[in-house]
Amino acid sequence: MAIDPRTPGADYLSFWRERHVCTLTTLRPDGTPHVVPVGVTYDPEAGVARVISSKSSKKVSNILAGGADGGAAAVCQFAGRLWASLEGRARIRTEPEAIADAERRYAERYGRTPSPNPNRVLIEITLHKALGSKSLHKSSPSGGTSQR
């Protein structure tokens, strides 16, 4: 059983607040996966994960190719034997206030302010599933187990 991405346990949430390099997986128009390293912030209260990017990137074009509904996306991180992933539907946001909020969250998690980028957009993933190492499920209200 998966973890509810809106009500993760303390261990799972703590793992997502630690500084880790993550990956973002999007699907190319031909259906093959495109995986790239990114910084991710996770907001369970809003049920979203956020990634900042340049609007000319392949990950952004993959999501835009999904049309108004966006595209399927997953973010993942690991440290040693611990791993966690978040899955959902990604959309591109261009509102300055949404991008500024994402930059602030990035700086909080990663300890550095992103370099200025006038072409920056926000990849916002509306989450429907959270998975992870069994040990991260200990304090999960949903009591889920590891999915591999």
UniProtKB/TrEMBL annotation:
It comes from the Bacteria. Pfam families: PNPOx_N (PF01243). Keywords: Oxidoreductase. The keyword Oxidoreductase applies. Signal peptide: none annotated. One of its GO terms (molecular function) is oxidoreductase activity, acting on the CH-CH group of donors. The keyword Oxidoreductase applies. One of its GO terms (cellular component) is cytosol. Residues 13-130 form the Pyridoxamine 5'-phosphate oxidase N-terminal domain. SUPFAM superfamilies: FMN-binding split barrel. This is Nitrilase. It comes from Streptomyces boluensis. The lineage of its organism: Bacteria, Bacillati, Actinomycetota, Actinomycetes, Kitasatosporales.
